[in-house]
Amino acid sequence: MDPVRNPYAPGAGQRPPELAGRDRELQQFDVVLERIARGRPERSLVLTGLRGVGKTVLLNALRSQAIRRLWGTGKIEARPDQSIRRPLASALHMAVRELTPRHRDPEQVDQFLSVLKAFALKSAADGAKLRDRWHPGIDVAAASGRADTGDIEVDLVELLVDAAGVARDVGVGIAVFVDEMQDIPPTDVSALCAACHELSQQALPLVVVGAGLPHLPAVLSASKSYSERLFRYVRIDRLDRDAADLALVAPAAEEGVEYEQEALDALYTATEGYPYFVQAYGKVTWDHAPAVPITADDVRVAAPDAEAELAVGFFGSRYERATPAEREYLQAMASLSGEVDGTVATSDVAVQLGRKPSSLSPARDSLIKKGLIYSAERGTIAFTVPHFGIYLRQHATT
Fold first, then answer.
1. In the beta sheet, which residues pair with residue 373?
2. DSSP character for 181?
3. Nearest to 242 by CA among 257, 218, 264
4. pLDDT (tens digit, 9 = 90+) per residue, 26-73?
5. pLDDT by residue (tens digit) across 203-256?
6. 176 three-class SS
7. Residue 99 to residues 34, 106, 174, 342, Cα–Cα distance (Å)
8. Name one Pfam family in it (predicted).
9. Burial of 397 by CB count in 10 Å (0-12 exposed, 13-18 middle, 19+ buried)?
10. I want to staple 75 with a disulfide (CB 3.0 to 4.6 A). Which of 177, 220, 346, 348 is the partner?
11. Does the CA dihedral 3-4-5-10 come out positive or negative?
12. What's 43's DSSP letter?
């Protein structure tokens, strides 16, 4: 098999050649875009799921849908302990620039850009040195009295309302996409929820689409109680059998390559339908297969190499980020989580390690912050990475 023609794409956030199993989400978002464009009230959207299920890929696909409808779009990736003020200002700047050529009132656009600049400049503390201030590439003077209080909740509401006004005058909308949404600092989460609430109440054409780990709804709910009704939550899970097969078969068919049914059976057993694993195993199996069709024997021969690549790039890179104390916590979780890597009680981890639960709180909280585990519900935790417990039981040591 020619490796140059290998169609599979196991990169982080990289769109696979066949975006299988996500038709329903794509169709629903088309309805959201159309309703907002017509002035109908609609909720912002939040995608949740484990690592490797394709949240970022789907987020990018939804953005492409908005672009095809000539909406203004911008995207940010949230980071722990970093305010969203700067990245969000950059994203909105990009979104409005996409709309500017079609806007009939350049003065209104400049007025918004002056507000945007005022909002962005508040990312620097008062009295900060010139070299520490951020200077956005906006060729208008910063506005005074709009989105410049320094209170992120007040400023963000005003900024997004003004941005929506620019889009409304063009007859379209603005979509802001936020990846790793669970990492937004609490104050900024509260501000974003308040802004989305105001946009929804006024039926303004601006929508926020977030993606994050399974505990993201709890993060939003802890910020604003009404967030449970403010967002439409969509759980992104592993692919069912038909979709997983399609993700393998469709791109191979484009290259004139077929799979035997037993090969597809073996691949689904190995990947359990997790999109990242489907792409990883598909790529390595293709490279190992000597001829068409691809057989179950080809899958068996390739499996050790696929597992080795995942052990280094998918599992190992995450494990290496953990401190010795955190690794001890992870391994205790792995020993308790069973073959399916289910949820684990924090009290059981303490018993397993012979420690008081309170003494393990720093390690647990740090692992949550690093995105390696999440709190499924009060008193329990689980891995954010599918098959991570299996990896730890087979490979990792303190």
1. 383
2. G
3. 264
4. 999 999 999 998 888 889 999 999 999 999 999 999 999 999 999 999
5. 999 999 999 999 999 999 988 888 888 899 999 999 999 999 999 999 999 999
6. strand
7. 17, 11, 9, 47
8. AAA_16
9. exposed
10. 177
11. positive
12. -
Return the structure tokens found at 395.
Answer: 């490979």
CA-CA distance, 72 to 48, in Å (whole number)? Answer: 24
Two structure tokens written together for 396: 């990792």
Tokens 């995450």: give the residue. Answer: 318
- Amino acid letter for position 63: R
Examine residue 293 and say whether the peptide bond preceding it is cis (omega within 30 degrees of 0). Answer: yes
Element (H, E) at 48: strand 44-48
Percent pLDDT > 70 in the chain is: 96
Angle, CA of 177, 147 and 169, to the nearest 5°? 65
Residue 171 token pair: 């007859």
For 76-145, give the DSSP string. Answer: EE--TT--SHHHHHHHHHHHHHHHGGG-S-HHHHHHHHHHHHHHHHTTSPTT--GGGS---S--SPPPSS
Q: 3-class SS at 24?
A: helix
Orientation angle between helical segments 186-201 and 216-223, nearest 10 degrees = 80
Question: Could you tell me which residues come within 8 angstroms of residue 129 by beta carbon, excluding any fewer than 6 positions away?
Answer: none
Structure tokens given for 140: 């208008």
> For 116-154, how does the pLDDT look when each residue is reduced to its tens digit (9 = 90+)?
999 998 875 544 454 445 666 787 888 899 999 999 999
